[in-house]
Design a protein that fits this description.
The protein is mainly alpha-helical and 459 residues long. It contains 19 helices and six strands. It binds arginine.
Length: 459
């Protein structure tokens, strides 16, 4: 049997394999709420514009609502031969309403319909990702406030560099998430033009009111070019690009959690709720959730790359290739949502091991820069010379296997005779972090102030 939605000129139905490759209902059924929202806005406008009689509009509206109820109740039967969500809804509408249902598709096409549905879905998802990112920022800011003065080693090249505070480290991710949220909002703002009414590609001869449908669906305005309206998937690409960058941030934090929870580092403890045991090694507490957050960035970036490749070189306007936008976009944004939720849970439960962190912060000559800065500030040495003197002292301490603060004044004065007792104050990690009061620096007062400001801003 030929397709009842478009089979007029076809003598027979599609080959089995054609149906399989062509059908998107398996994954686009999740667009049902958006599809029905779009249809309700469209049919109301057709009525207002005098294109459809009021009784048909009323019948179609009532019918669409029962379809929506059936889908929500889980009683709706999705059939592969109906290809996609648009034809599935319309076909069921026809069963409920009769031939008047056929008037719903006046002055539109599946091309503008699917673009509208996808935009609505991506917009809703960007809004909820923004909220989830704010939740993670909130959890990080609380932890930052609590640990504004908890010292830990700061790293460059994963080598101990200078002491920082645990709170400062948390706030670094709060800043990254703020940029991620900015990107979500930018993408949303650019997305917010309505393609509905562009029809197949050229617009329509019916006197439709695209401003009305745009407003009814919460868009700022209708799209300005009908070809671009149905050929554009920038909004999905931008959402995926923003999601990819966010996923990269989350993966960096996840990697730190994996390293920090190892027995060798022992910097933090994850709760039982976010670790798993090993079936053979009883001592293990594996950070599986963090590992999966680290890994899921792969599929999110993969979805972005995949869709960029689908879109590149496509001639205007719509091509069926574009149906491939869906699975990757759904999967990637859902994966990001899961990662945000999992990391928020981990941060809320996380316990830094303050003693281990303090010990590690002081090891590896992490206060060498403080010594060099002291020589510059107190003795007026040029920084390069101070660097050289400090280097010599690090060499002496390291040969003896002791910390800089354990060298005697006599030993220090061998490298630079003008050094006094006062230098010991800057060799301790507490003094080191407290002295970093420059704007954006790690001093506990700074961290406390910034954490407080974030907590207020996030509400
Ligand atoms: N399922 C299709 C998609 O997702 C809907 C648009 C189909 N349009 C068409 N002319 N065949 O892209």
């Amino acid at each position: 049997m030929s397709n009842r939605m478009w089979g007029g000129r076809f003598a027979s139905g599609p080959a089995e394999i054609m149906e399989e490759i062509n059908a998107s209902i398996g994954f686009d059924k999740r667009l049902a709420p958006q599809d029905i929202r779009g249809s309700l806005a469209h049919v109301a406008m057709l009525g207002q514009a005098g294109i459809l009689p009021a009784e048909d509009v009323a019948a179609i509206e009532a019918g669409l609502k029962s379809v929506r109820d059936e889908i929500e109740a889980g009683t709706f039967v999705f059939k592969r031969e109906l290809e996609d969500i648009h034809m599935s809804v319309e076909s069921r509408l026809t069963e409920i309403v009769g031939p008047a249902a056929g008037r719903l598709h006046t002055a539109r096409s599946r091309n503008d319909q699917v673009a509208t549905d996808m935009k609505l879905w991506v917009r809703d998802t960007l809004d909820s990702l923004d909220q989830q990112a704010a939740d993670l920022q909130r959890a990080l800011s609380q932890t930052a406030l609590k640990h504004a003065a908890t010292v830990m080693p700061g790293f460059t090249h994963l080598q101990s560099a200078q002491p920082v505070t645990f709170g400062h480290h948390c706030l670094a991710y709060v800043e990254m998430l703020a940029r991620d949220r900015g990107r979500f909002r930018d993408a949303r703002a650019r997305l917010n033009e309505c393609p509905l009414g562009a029809a197949a590609l050229a617009g329509t001869s019916f006197p439709i009111d695209r401003h009305a449908t745009a407003a009814a669906l919460g868009f700022d305005r209708p799209t300005a070019n009908s070809l671009d309206s149905v050929a554009d998937r920038d909004f999905a690409l931008e959402a995926l690009a923003a999601a990819s960058i966010c996923a990269v941030h989350l993966s960096r934090f996840a990697e730190e959690l994996v390293v920090w929870t190892s027995a060798q580092f022992n910097f933090v403890r994850l709760s039982d709720g976010f670790t798993t045991g090993s079936s053979i090694m009883p001592q293990k507490r594996n950070p599986d959730a963090a590992e999966l957050v680290r890994a899921k960035s792969g599929r999110i970036i993969g979805a972005l790359t995949g869709l960029l490749i689908v879109m590149k070189g496509l001639p205007l306007a719509y091509s069926k290739d574009m149906q491939e936008d869906k699975e990757g976009t759904f999967d990637a944004l859902q994966a990001l949502s899961l990662c945000l939720a999992a990391l928020t849970g981990m941060v809320q439960d996380l316990e830094p091991n303050a003693e281990v962190l303090a010990r590690a912060a002081g090891s590896g000559y992490a206060t060498a820069t403080d010594l060099a800065d002291w020589l510059v500030r107190e003795l007026g040495l040029p920084f390069r010379q101070a660097h050289h003197v400090t280097g010599r002292l690090v060499g002496v301490a390291s040969a003896k296997g002791v910390g800089l603060e354990e060298l005697s004044l006599a030993e220090l004065q061998e490298a630079e005779p003008r050094i006094t007792d006062a230098v010991y104050a800057v060799l301790g990690v507490g003094n080191s972090v407290a002295s970093r009061t420059s704007y954006g620096g790690t001093a506990p007062d700074n961290v406390r102030r910034q954490a407080q400001a974030w907590i207020e801003r996030l509400g």
